[in-house]
Amino acid sequence: MHRIATLLIGLIAVLHLYIAWFEIFAWTTRGPEIFSTFPAELFEPTQSMAANQGLYNSFLAIGLIWSLFITNPEWRFKVASCFLLFVAVAGIFGAATVSPRIMIVQTVPAIIALIFAYLSYRKTAPTP
Questions:
Q1: Which of 3, 13, 39, 78 could crosslink 64 through cysteines, CB 3.0-4.6 Å?
Q2: How many whole angstroms separate alpha carbon 83 and alpha carbon 66?
Q3: Is 128 contained in some domain?
Q4: Residues 77, 57 contacting (CB under 8 angstroms)
Q5: Helical ranges in the chain per DSSP H
């Protein structure tokens, strides 16, 4: 369970590093091909807004990566859970405001990782 949870958390962190890179550095170059329904003339004026969103996505990635280095199982689970919940909520909001596809890309993997993190933690948690 621990390896699967670690792998999923790592993959979600990498996804958010990619999203951060895209929003900060490639918004005007790659954006029009990825968001084809967004008017092309709006990418340049929204570049700073996208970069700001990218910064938040980098925070999500950094928090998830941080959780992978925590050796105490209880705190590893708590920190990972916190950031996975942030990712899930961001995905729900994105699905409601931008595209339902965001729910599949962001929320579903975060919930699956959260389940595996919980199962992994339960195996190591001391019994009362």
A1: 13
A2: 10
A3: yes
A4: no
A5: 2-25, 27-34, 47-68, 73-97, 101-102, 108-124
Tokens of 116: 């595996």
Per-residue pLDDT at 23 exceeds 90: yes
User: Per-residue pLDDT tens for 42-93?
Assistant: 999 999 999 999 999 999 999 999 999 999 999 999 999 999 999 999 999 9
Answer whether residue 28 is part of any domain. no
pTM of the model: 0.90
pLDDT tops 70 at residue 127: no
User: Domain for residue 31, yes or no?
Assistant: no
The 8-class DSSP code of residue 74 comes to H
* Residue whose pair of structure tokens reads 């999500």 in the numeric block: 60
